Every structure is written in structure tokens, then in C-alpha cells.
Amino acid sequence: MRARAAARRRALARGALGQRVRRIAPVVVPVLLAIADAVLVNGVELALELGVSVVAATALLLRRRFPLPVFLFTLPGLYIGYIWFAPMIALYTLAARRPVRTRLGICAVLLIAAHFFPYPIADFEPTHYRENTLVLIDACVSSAAPIAMGLLVRTRGELAVRVEDLTRSLRREDRLLADRVKTTERARLAREMHDVVAHQVSLISLQAGAVQVSTQDETARAGARTIRELSVRTLDELRHMVGVLRADGGEAAELQGLAPQPDLEELPRLIEMSALDVTYEGGVVAGASGAKAVERAAFRTVQEALTNVRKHAPGAQVRVRVGPGGSGESERLRVEIRNGPPDESAMAPALPGGGHGLVGLRERAQSLGGTLEARHTSDGGFVVRAEFPYGGTPNGAG
């Protein structure tokens, strides 16, 4: 472990050193090359030429911040000391960072003049046509090459930025296309849900209403009334879900805010209409903390657990407990639904199931910062226990 930590520290040190070198090298290396050029061209005997050349080379340290003044500062080094690296590097930096055509043209002419005319100017021989022509061509090439290289590097950087912008635009278009496809699919699902489920539930409600009106048996009438109320509530929630599926963005949020949402106040009514042997123990004042999302999650947890009892443990006794729990008694809400073994004499209803109810409850609990546990008990029953943060959750959470 100690050797591994030491190796990690060395790797970090090498990484930091490498970053520092990569940051400093582009600034220092051109200066060193220019100084070497000045020493090789002028030697150590020519004090004026060497001094002007070294000063011009040292000025390259500021070429990124002041490209034009640095270029002008290197021209005496070219004219007096006959150095090349310093003015060419300065002109390249100017073309890469300040690519103004007029300015670059004037600087190119100045470099050509500093290269073409000798020092001192009295040594210039206008009649040496062949030699002057070669020197002029050399000066033009020496000024054009760094400008072309600087413009090329700048253009490449601009193209890289454009490509990155285009890539982001393509990704944004892909997301928009995916959202459009998702919206279309949601609308199709909404139509299918409305056409299939709403029709069947409406028939159930009508048949229950007919039984409620025609029968003289009070028990049958109460059962029909319960079926009718459940059907009406199912239709209301179905309309809400269809509206959410059809809507998008802020419209969906608005519909969610306007639609009726169950909370802890409706738990007794849910248990009463479940037609199960349920003992309810509620130790939380509904709506006391304003955590509506948590109360909806608690309601849905009890609802799904009772549905599973009805499917898999008919006739079992159920105990529902809702109260404070967890490590922070005032900040956690515990929901526990525990049922015993099924009654062998009770008839199990043939209700369909997809096996996704507990998975959805666990995902809902995790999205609110809570937990959910579901397991079999030693007596052959089943327990579902969920804990939610209750006290610091805003109204719009979840």
C-alpha cells in the first residue's frame, strides 16, 4: 500500500511537471532559439550587434500579449544583427493572433526593408542588380512564410471551433428529433389507453350504477356504489395520465399541478374500499410538513401493496402502519404494509400482473431520496417497508 501511494504521488508529480512544461515550453523555447541565432550569427566580438539581437530575442517573451510592439522591437535585431528567428517568430505570432490584412502588409514591408538594406546604409550598392534581386526575393519569402503559417494555424483553430459548434448543433438536433419521436409515441399511447381502458371502465361504472338502482339488497347496493366510485376515480386519474402523455414541457407540469393527487388524507378511504381485512395505524398528520410528493409516494406504496395482497394472498390479514421512523424521527416517514399467509379457503382473483409494481415503487422512493424493502416473512406472509424524507422536501419535489 505504501509503495502504491508513493507511485501515485510520483505519477501526480510527473503529471503536474508535464503540464508546467507544456505551458512554459512554447514561450521559452523560441526565445532560446532566437538567442542561439544571435550568438551564432554575431559571435561575442560584435558587442552592438549581439546586444541588439539578444534584446530582440528576449522581447519574444511578451509576443503573445503584445504581438505588434514585439515585432517592431525585433526589427533592429534583423537590421543591425542579421538575426532571423526573432522577427520571423514575432511576425508569425502577429499573423496568428492579430490577422489584420493592412497591418500584416505593412509589417511584411518593414521586414523586407530591414532584410534588404544593409547596416550601415552606406554599404548599399544600387548597381549590384543580381545580388540585390536575390536578396529581395529572399526577403519576400522570409516575410511571406511566417504570415502564411500564422494564418494557417489561425484558420485551423477557427475550423476546429466551427466543427465543435456543428457537432453540438447535430447533437442538439438529434435530441430534438428524439424528443419529437417520444412525443409522437406518447400521443399514440395516450390514444390507445383512452380507447381501450376508458371504454371498459365506463362500462363497469354504468353496470354498477344500474345494479345500484335496480337491486333492493343493501349489501349489493353498497358494493355497487363502491365499484362506481372506484370507476369514477379511475377515469379521473386516466384522464390526468392521458393529458400528461399528450402534453409536453411546461404544459405537462401545469397539468400535473392541476390534476387531483392523492395524499395521506385519502389512505383511510383507500383502505375502506380495498375489501381486505386491514388494520390501519396512522401516526402522521397528513399535510403537516407540506411534502406532497412524499405523501403521494406513500399513498401509491400502500395502494400497490394492497393490490398485491389481493392478487397473491387472498383472505390474509393486513396491517398498515404510517408514521415517523428512521434515524431522524422528525424527518423520516415510514410506511409499512405487512400481511400474513393467504387463507386457503379464499378464492384467488384472476387479476393480471406485469411484475413491475415493486420495481416502480423502489424507483419512486429512490428518486425522493428514500428506500424501499420488500421481502417474505417467516410466517409465510410478505412485508413492504418504505422510508421517505419528510420535513425538508419541497412541495414540487418528485
From TrEMBL:
Residues 295-390 form the Histidine kinase/HSP90-like ATPase domain. Its EC number is 2.7.13.3. Residues 339-359 are annotated as: Disordered. One of its GO terms (molecular function) is phosphorelay sensor kinase activity. Keywords: ATP-binding, Kinase, Membrane, Nucleotide-binding, Phosphoprotein, Transferase, Transmembrane, Transmembrane helix, Two-component regulatory system. GO terms for cellular component: membrane. It catalyses: ATP + protein L-histidine = ADP + protein N-phospho-L-histidine. The chain crosses the membrane at residues 21-41, 70-92, 104-122. Residues 185-248 form the Signal transduction histidine kinase subgroup 3 dimerisation and phosphoacceptor domain. It comes from the Bacteria. It is an enzyme of class 2 (transferase). Pfam families: HATPase_c, HisKA_3. PANTHER family: NITRATE/NITRITE SENSOR PROTEIN NARX-RELATED, NITRATE_NITRITE SENSOR PROTEIN NARQ. This is histidine kinase.
